[in-house]
Amino acid sequence: MPLPYPPLHVEVATPRLRLRSATDDLLEGLIPIVREGVVGDDVPFDDPMSLYEMSPTREWRWLQRIWAARARVEPSWWRLCLVVEVDGRAVGMQDLIAEDFPTFGTVTTFSWLAPQARGVGVGREMRAAVLHLAFAGFGAREATSEAFLDNEASNAVSRSLGYEENGSTWATRRGQPAELRRWRLTRGRWETRRREDITLDGVTECRPVFGLE
After folding, report:
1. What domains, with CATH codes, occur in the chain?
2. Is beta strand 164-173 parallel, antiparallel or unpaired with respect to 176-186?
3. What is the mean pLDDT of the chain?
4. Above 80 in pLDDT, residue 80?
5. pLDDT, tens digit, for every residue of 100-136?
6. pLDDT band at residue 43 using 50, 70 and 90 as cut-offs
């Protein structure tokens, strides 16, 4: 029987973690982490960002943004929201975003982790997993990423996975200007680091939804 809504049935598995489409059941497991707070000086996001808001508005806005992304899935724009699970426990999110993917084949990524899951290599592993989904699963040509100059963890992940620096830009952070470093990973560079221990499920069914017949 065909899947009722393929973007809710994607799974990426590595020896260390799983990325699973953000169903409401999985999102419920993340609410305590969101309520407690996931942002700080070491994890800065650009505006607007629901995770900066006060609880309970924070949880409401966070859920609304994910629901809005799930509702708008078409070839011209899509955002695949994935929950990160380590040892069966939800610890964060890893999103894959594309604009006019059938034409450009370019994706960008966004992620966050619970404070207790940081600093042990989970961030690098989940980015490697979502890059495998993009390149091996959807045939991406290029992946991009951005991080504030002082977001050392995110910049280090990009560097370690073979991204090349690709200039800079500006964004606001809590209303103040801050510089972003841009990163670019081509398919060719990804291929030189391609892993054979990452598995994909539910990808074929998603391709028509993303305009990849």
Report:
1. 6-206 (3.40.630.30)
2. antiparallel
3. 93
4. yes
5. 999 999 999 999 999 999 999 999 999 999 999 999 9
6. low
The C-alpha atoms of residue 4 and residue 22 are separated, in whole angstroms, by 15
Q: In what order do the strands lie in the sheet with 142-148?
A: 164-173, 176-186, 142-148, 106-113, 89-99, 77-86, 18-21, 11-13, 199-201
**Rounded CA separation 203/177 (Å):** 38
CA neighbours closer than 13 Å in the CB half-sphere of residue 47 = 10
Q: Measure the CA–CA gap between 78 and 25, rounded to whole angstroms.
A: 21
pTM (2 decimals)?
0.95
Given a cut of 90, is residue 51 above it in pLDDT?
A: no
The continuous run of DSSP H or E covering 203 comes out as helix 203-206
Q: Which residues contact 53 (CB under 8 A, 6 or more apart)?
A: 61
Q: State how beta strands 18-21 and 77-86 pair.
A: antiparallel
Radius of gyration (Cα) for the chain, nearest Å? 16
pLDDT above 80 (res 2): no
143 DSSP β-pair partners: 107, 185
CB 37 within 8 A of CB 49: no
Give strand ranges (E) for the chain.
Answer: 11-13, 18-21, 77-86, 89-99, 106-113, 142-148, 164-173, 176-186, 199-201
Residue 86: Cβ within 10 Å count = 18
Residue keyed to tokens 């609880």: 55
